What does this fold into?
Amino acid sequence: MSVAITLDFVLRQGDFTLELRERVDARVVALFGPSGSGKTSVLEAIAGLRTPDRGVIRIGPRILYSSEDRVHVPPHERNVGYVPQDLALFPHMNVRRNILYGVGSSQDDGQATTLDQILSLLELHPLLNRQVGDLSGGERQRVAMARALSTSPLLLVLDEPLTGLDQGLRARVLPYLERIRDELSTPMVYVSHDASEVRALADWVVELDGGRAIRSGPELG
Amino acid sequence: MTGVVLEIAWRTVSMAVLATLVMLPPGIALAWVLARRRFPGRALLETLVSLPLVMPPVATGLMLIWLFGRRGPVGGLLARLGTDVLFTWRAIVIAMAVMGLPLLVRAARAGFEQVDRRYEEIAATLGASPIRVFLTISLPLAKRGVLAGALLGFSRALGEFGATIMVAGALPSTRTIAVAIYSYTETGQDAAAAIMLAVSASIAFGALFLSNRIAAS
It folds into this structure.
């Protein structure tokens, strides 16, 4: 299921200015570009961890930020699932408690089935009682994705989910992302600097350089 | 003699425990605010909290006398409610808590500063309110600093002398170990003073040993 995403905002941080004017309708939007091009800042603005200077951020019908209407939904009320590049699995909780952390916070009756579906999809049942420190790189990725999906988010944002994994692991984790896209129908905004990943997953690509979109379209240029 | 020693030791330890419980809520709140928030007056607050650490304890005691005396702003209010503070066990607890607070705040603040903000941010994106983030992420991850701080504050409370003798005196009913050592020595009861010294050293050793173990774990 595609969703209308509006990322039309200006965000300044020191000398760097991020300026986007995107309105896209897609299932998976890839933000593609070299490091330092502002990709992570876009994700953090969507998740509410950074506040733009002005503009609008809208996912489907929900306005998350609008300087004109003085709307700034705080991160804990946005329901945007965020998988940061460093994953940030809670070190004092085991896998189960990490994944269930967000479940208590929202009131969705259909959650129990969804959660079980997520665990099956990401093949996490055997890992539930493990300590976070004992997981391999690919396992940590899947736990972070399950945790972000557990609240049935409006949108899943992922920061270079395959970076840091070796070729073999990439090939194993990529299908999980395709399953999230196809079976859970959770829309995604996905940051990558790897063209092959982008081709495999995205149906819309925004290419960033120096804080601006230099290309935006259904195919990687 | 043994009876008196035990009574004084028990009073000192129980008052220090109580003082630690009293300083924990404001201490943790102050530590978190100083570690995580930027606001006008922050430097002033930081200095105020540390003041008892550098001021002569007797001077802190005098300030407490003004505050908690029957004509003081807080003491007057309590007197009207029928509660006296000065020269009672309450004065001991207050003096110990005020003197221990800076040490608790310092250690706990370092604990909060070491918590990666990332975890707090991600918890928020998972729908956790700021208070839930604090209780389930920040506080458990800063646990070691908070515990070490509580033990430091407790140790400080155990040894408190200057402020305590100002607000609680050296009455038989308010004497702590430190105050007892002072008055025994003053009155030439050297054997009694030596026993109190041994008791004091063993309790302080235990508390510091535990504190270092926690900090190193």
